[in-house]
Amino acid sequence: MIVEEFRDAALELTWKQALICMGLRWGVTDEAGRPVNAWARHLIPQAKRAFRARRRDFLQGEKFWKDHLATLAISAGGKK
């Protein structure tokens, strides 16, 4: 559940922002983003992997649509 929350945060936040915000919310980090205990040290790498995968997919999707719309504008005679 916590890992999924980090994954969803990738659509709006950077990793550092998500680490602090979600970490404080779930009690796994302090205000500086440091893990508070051994369980949190184990959880954070899992959350980061999920975050990075979602962020990568999100950014690739944005790039696709940007390129696609530019291609449509060019084919329609518009300027890029």
Write the layout of secondary structure elements.
Layout lengths: L1 H8 L5 H12 L11 H38 L5
Helix pairs in contact: 1-2, 1-3
* Biggest beta-sheet profile: none
- Tally of discrete structural domains: 1
- Average pLDDT rating: 92
Radius of gyration: 18 Å
The helix/strand order is HHH
Report on the architecture of this protein.
The structure is a single chain. By secondary structure, this protein is mainly α. It has one domain (2-75). It is built from 3 helices and no strands. The protein has helices at residues 2-9, 15-26, 38-75. Helix 1 packs antiparallel against helix 2 (15-26). The longest helix has 38 residues, at 38-75. It is elongated, with a radius of gyration of 18 Å. The mean pLDDT is 92.
